[in-house]
Amino acid sequence: MDCNKFEGSQKLNNLAEQLRLYKPPTKYSTNNKITNPIEDDKISNASQHGNAKSNNRAAVLICLFEGIDGDVRVILTKRSSTLSSHSGEVALPGGKVEEGDANDIETALREAKEEIGLDPSLVNVVTVLESFTTKRGISVVPVIGIMQDRCAFKPDANTAEVEEIFDAPLEMFLKDENRREVELEWMGEKYALHFFDHNPENKKFVIWALTAGILIRAASIVYQRLPAFQERRPSFWNRSGL
Question: What's the predicted TM-score (pTM) here?
């Protein structure tokens, strides 16, 4: 990003106010309204999603900022090819809860600092989404934060975990362009696995599986509309509730 050309706007402030009104539904459905206002717009220090101290719990940071063209963008990583699991895949900054973490928000911010050098003071956490549960039973909690000053962020990849740091327009996860899907089955249930191709500056990234699912949900909330395609998400993503 050319910081000399970058000027902030009221857009992120308005978005922050909108997202503070979001409350995760008790049970996700594609028929749910995109927002569910609550009286208290502050995030509880204990997190709205229960006890964060769990070996089967993780949190990821959806860090949003405004691009040069005024679009809302999200920071992503490509995992190191030397990792024992999910090597080389695109992911959101994040990881498993550790003993000293007070809540899901702290987990997400700590992991982002460790993985990409993102100073937590640059991120204004505005809401926490419903958890997504993997087939292995790990509950992944998406934490949405807004970064007003993108130019203050100096990416510093932890090479043991992260191969590349990049960003993508959030709205792409609502569009049918550059998207493909495969149909899978789990316990007799058929669902769609989405793949989004993102090719900035002659590079090629594929954003898929759980990361794509989380970003489809986040984009639906931010842009107040459902995706242009049928989502057909697997029910196991929310089988453990919130």
Answer: 0.87
